[in-house]
Specification:
heterotrimer, A mainly alpha, B mainly alpha, C alpha/beta, A: MetI-like fold, 2 domains, globular, C: Rossmann fold, six-stranded mixed beta sheet, ABC_transporter-like_ATP-bd (chain C), nucleotide-binding (chain C), ATP hydrolysis activity (chain C), P-loop_NTPase (chain C), ABC_transporter_ATP-bind (chain C)
């Protein structure tokens, strides 16, 4: 109860500080409107159909990208994680591809797949595949050998070992990867919309609002909504993870 | 005496194993490049120039300078170094702020209660959406870019530091208290070292975020820098040129990450399991 | 011998009102300088609370502690504690030598002097050559020696040891016991050692303080009149030792002692010790539940 009260004090304190800084003139109001105005704009925008459509476009692209990433990275991770020579052979390529900042590919992707929703989905997938892939490989390498030996001693077949021993063990790690990827995918979707000027989406909304220069309240409202979406996604996944993997204490510890 | 020889043999066998691993690594890499070369030559797509062409463009672009500049061309000084400088400056500031604030908040019992939800929200904001705000505040230029990088890179460091600082083992707390450890020694020799593994996990993430935001901020609002050159090359349909910048970003990402990993391995060499996985 | 530690009317309660758990009740005793006093009591009887009060890590609810005449108010300047769990008490990021130097860091000592004192302490516990290793590279017994060296390096007026040998194997335990007695006699350190092991308390101590089960009160204060030079085999076989350990064991029993043959007696001791442990864990559990409730509102 007391911590909830402190949470509120912190949030309200931040808004008051911001409001005060603008009112006193520390920050020019034209550039950074006070929170009261931003909140009013946010509420107003949430009642407007075009804005809602932008939000939906962004969330939809994010969801598709995350699904595709999971569909690619989990099987790939299981394969690389259980076949050592394949993992060794591909390690170099993976190690060289991963650090390429995904946004560096924006110009290329725009050329190849055009400016439609495919572009942001492609880029988000490229960025979101890695955490899931690495956490899956890591999970398989971390399986307790005793567990595997026990299963083998019980005469479990290779296929059944994967489904009944390896997968349940890997699940919490994979889920941690999905959580990291979810955040990255959202950043990429919004960034691509913003940089490339997609037909619709939150990033595009912010781009258009900022190009006039005088609609900073709308820019910030868009930012607040983007932040809220990100917060809800992260919080939701965290809750799901806690419910699904109650039996596993290391869930969330597989940062790699 | 025998110990010395044993050690030498072990070192040698390690070196051989390392060398063959190293050779295999590069063989696979070269193989991949050859496949890439053949595939692009067969496909003949303008968007995908063969790697040899990318390399020759890159050599021409970066190493055509006079001897007085160590043969580095002006491009290096006008675009690459400023980009790197902004990226590292933003990251460094984010790290200092993140570790400092994170330590203070982690030590305080109620601090995170006040700012926790606020920070969780800030972290969830995709940093590029704040570019317009920083742009009006700092104008087109390094200020805006560094601010964007700091805003994006600080959260993983800060939140991981809070976690690490909070998780100091209770027996170590009692031990330090029983020696009446003064605060500076308590923070410097107990709290921070205990939190370091967590902090490093945050540093790695924030470094890759810094690089991403460096590129994004340059794609949007910059007069120079790698991102600016990248988007200009695309707009001018100079695809090999565009590819050299993409490759450079890959190399930078790989290099910076490797440097950080090397530093981590050195700093955390006291961890027992660290010596097994080399 | 002057008095080093004086504990008067010590009380400690966790929580308040009906849910309060009394861990230590009206406890008074004193330890002379240069003495090795053992406190023995059943597990979970409040020994750790008592130690934490004496070390100044927690303020007692009531009563006073004084060290060489100065009232203890917070951790005193010249005190050191050796904890049971050496692997958690040593700092894994510091080498062995740096761990031992740790308490000297903020003293006005030259770097050279600091290193010398650390080396002396390591020599005293028989760990001369391992200064540059990290704690995890040593065996458990060696790690506990490092924490003893660290405590000695600060030259404490009082060394408090909380079940220091409970986490090492029996063989190492004998070695460490002899090491502790030797070092204590060489350096004339005043030591207050807590253990649940009756034999250990008699073998190590110049004096054994027997605690009752929770809440902890002193049941008896027995002088140990064994020769100063002790031997793991001969001393433990001596009639005096057997008589003393029998006496302590009887005192620790909650049920009135029956007349029994020595061998049967030993079996019964184990049984009662187990029973005491059971009740103690139960109490500890309720104590935890109580404190959990407390934090939730």
């Amino acid at each position: 109860m007391r911590s909830l009260y402190r949470n509120l004090v912190g949030l309200i304190g931040f808004f008051l500080l911001w409001e005060g800084a603008v009112r006193v003139g520390l920050v020019p109001e034209l550039f950074v409107p006070p929170p009261s105005e931003v909140l009013a704009t946010t509420v107003g925008l949430l009642g407007q159909e075009p804005f809602i459509r932008d939000v939906i476009a962004t969330v939809l692209a994010w969801a598709i990208a995350l699904l595709i990433s999971v569909a690619i990275a989990v099987p790939a991770g299981l394969l690389l994680g259980s076949v050592p020579w394949l993992r060794n052979a591909t390690r170099v390529i993976v190690e060289f591809l991963r650090p390429i900042p995904s946004v560096a590919l924006i110009p290329l992707v725009l050329l190849v797949v055009g400016g439609g929703p495919e572009a942001k989905i492609t880029l988000a997938v490229y960025a979101a595949v890695w955490p899931i892939l690495f956490n899956t490989i890591y999970a398989l390498s971390e399986i307790d050998p005793v567990l595997m030996d026990t299963a083998r001693a019980c005469g479990t077949s290779r296929g059944r070992m994967l489904t009944s021993v390896a997968l349940p063990h890997a699940a919490p790690f994979v889920f941690t990867g999905v959580r990291m990827s979810a955040a990255i995918a959202l950043i990429l979707v919004v960034s691509t919309e913003y940089v490339a000027g997609a037909a619709s989406g939150l990033g595009n909304f912010i781009l258009e609002a900022s190009s006039g220069g005088s609609n900073m309240d709308e820019v910030l409202a868009g930012t607040v909504v983007a932040g809220l979406i990100g917060y809800l996604i992260n919080d939701g996944l965290e809750r799901i993870g806690k419910r699904a993997f109650r039996w596993n204490e290391v869930a969330g510890e597989a940062a790699k | 005496m025998t110990q010395v020889t044993e050690r030498a043999t072990r070192l040698r066998s390690q070196a051989v194993a390392g060398l063959s691993g190293f050779a295999r690594t590069w063989l696979v890499f070269i193989g991949a490049v050859v496949v890439w070369e053949v595939a692009t030559r067969l496909a003949e797509s303008v968007f995908f120039p063969p790697p040899t062409e990318i390399v020759s463009t890159a050599l021409q672009l970066w190493f055509s300078g006079p001897a007085s500049q160590l043969f580095l061309s002006d491009v290096v000084f006008d675009h690459i170094l400023p980009s790197l400088g902004r990226c590292l400056a933003g990251w460094a500031i984010a790290v200092i702020l993140g570790v400092g604030l994170g330590t203070a908040l982690g030590r305080s019992r109620t601090g995170m209660d006040y700012v926790g939800p606020l920070f969780a929200f800030f972290r969830a904001i995709p940093p590029p959406t704040l570019v317009p705000v920083f742009m009006v505040l700092f104008g087109l230029g390094p200020g805006m870019q560094v601010a964007t990088i700091i805003f994006g890179a600080i959260w993983p460091v800060l939140l991981n530091t809070v976690d690490g600082v909070r998780a100091v083992d209770s027996v170590k707390v009692d031990t330090a208290r029983s020696f009446r450890t003064p605060t500076p020694y308590w923070i410097g020799m107990v709290v921070l070292p205990a939190a370091l593994p967590k902090i490093f996990a945050g540093l790695r993430l924030s470094l890759s975020i810094s690089l991403i935001l460096m590129v994004v901020s340059e794609l949007i609002g910059s007069l120079n820098g790698i991102g600016h050159e990248l988007i200009s090359a695309q707009r001018a349909f100079e695809f090999p040129l565009m590819w050299t910048w993409i490759v450079l970003l890959g190399i930078l990402g790989f290099g910076l990450n490797s440097l950080l990993l090397a530093a981590e391995r050195r700093v955390l060499r006291w961890q027992p399991n660290r010596n097994n996985d080399g | 011998m002057p008095t080093m530690l004086e504990v008067t009317g010590l009380n400690h309660r966790y929580g308040s009102g009906d849910g309060a758990h009394v861990a230590v009740k009206d406890l008074s005793f004193s330890v002379d300088a240069g003495q090795l006093a053992c406190i023995v009591g059943p597990s979970g009887c409040g020994k750790s609370t008592l130690l934490r009060c004496i070390a100044g890590l927690i303020p007692p609810t009531d009563g006073s502690v004084s060290l060489h005449g100065d009232a203890v108010n917070g951790v005193p300047d010249d005190l050191a504690v050796v904890f049971q769990d050496y692997s958690r008490s040593l700092f894994p990021w510091l080498t062995v030598a740096r761990n031992v130097e740790f308490p000297l860091r903020w003293r006005k000592l030259g770097k050279q002097e600091r290193a010398e004192r650390a080396q002396e302490a390591l020599d005293a516990v028989g760990l001369s050559g391992v200064g540059r290793k990290f704690p995890w590279q040593l065996s458990g017994g060696m790690q506990q020696r490092v924490s003893i060296a660290r405590a000695l390096a600060s030259k404490p007026a009082l060394l408090i040891m909380d079940e220091p040998f409970a986490s090492v194997d029996a063989q190492t335990r004998f070695e460490l016991e002899d090491l502790l007695r030797r070092v204590q006699r060489e350096q004339r350190t005043t030591i207050l050692l807590v253990t649940h092991d009756i034999d250990e308390s008699v073998y190590l101590g110049d004096r054994v303080l027997v605690l009752s089960k929770s809440p902890a009160t002193i049941v008896a204060d027995l002088p140990v009149d064994l020769p100063a030079d002790r031997d793991q085999i001969a001393t433990r076989e001596s009639a005096k030792f057997v008589a003393l350990r029998g006496e302590v064991a009887r005192l620790l029993q909650t049920v009135p002692a029956k007349q029994a043959a020595p061998e049967q007696q030993a079996d019964e001791d184990v049984a009662t010790a187990d029973a005491a442990e059971w009740t103690a864990t139960e109490e500890a559990a309720t104590e935890n539940a109580g404190s959990a409730k407390e934090t939730s509102h």
